[in-house]
Amino acid sequence: MAYYQAKFFSCKELLEDLEDKLIYDFGAISVTILDAKDEPILELGVGEYAVWSENILQALFDEEPDKANLENLCVSGEVTLIAVEKVVDKVWEREWMKDFRPMQFGKNLWICPNGFDAPEPDAVNIMLDPGLAFGTGTHPTTALCLEWLDGVDLKDKIVIDYGCGSGILAIAALLLGARKCYAIDNDPQALIATMDNAVKNNVEQNLIASLPEDFDKTKGDILLANILAKPLLELAPLFSECCKVSSNLVLSGILKEQEELIINGYSGFFDKFEVRQMEDWLRVSALKSS
Q: What are residue 125's DSSP bridge partners?
């Protein structure tokens, strides 16, 4: 099935009105708002969505819209119709995976997407299908956590992966020797992806996936959390409660300018902080203090 996409430039002040007209008057089946000039909005509160000073709005239609009518929505210098184009339907949530290839982390850990043979059969190979969940190793935040896991002794450890996404960190920990992993996420789709990937890697017997409200606050030897700075700060007391004395804490999803904020937020519970940077992102690791 073919769809049609109308692309507009819009200033912040007229964006909501343009969005409403495209949906309610023109029958758009979806609207996507993008940043028009690389203006970062790093973290949003609950219920908030990104609106920049200058925006690109993409409206999707299941029938070709009348371009002349769409042009009537334009306001000189503030709302401009950029293009109307035909879009061939695809399985969009999987389209990006066509460029996903096996990747190595540390000395002995590989991530292999479905359909690829393991480049080094004697290495630790994770066979992965992320589905709709975050976590393939392509992002620096995930890569930093995988690198850390590959460099430590995980034999018989209990690991907590908080914000598990695809389950990549929990599965890596199990394949590297961990005894049991708890994978926690507030997205049910992530828990499905995690268990599917656990089955593919034959570690499902030692992996427990659950929503945060169902997690029994088991104390772990290692707690990993690859999320964002704001929820990481909010979760500091919980993470302390879930760690034994001298347990390892590994945090990622942190920008360089947030380093001091995170360390200050966790220094009441943890010590011996170490920081590793990859591109603009940090991994902060520490030990649970007494």
A: 110
pLDDT tens-digit readout, 111-162: 887 667 777 778 888 887 655 445 555 688 889 999 999 999 999 999 999 9
Domains 2-89 and 94-288 belong to one CATH topology: no
Of the candidates 198, 182, 191, the one whose C-alpha atom is nearest the C-alpha of residue 126 is: 198
Domain ranges of the chain: 2-89, 94-288
User: Which CATH architecture fits 2-89?
Assistant: 2-Layer Sandwich (3.30)
The answer to whether the beta carbons of residues 169 and 194 sit under 8 Å apart is no
pTM: 0.70
CATH no. of 94-288: 3.40.50.150
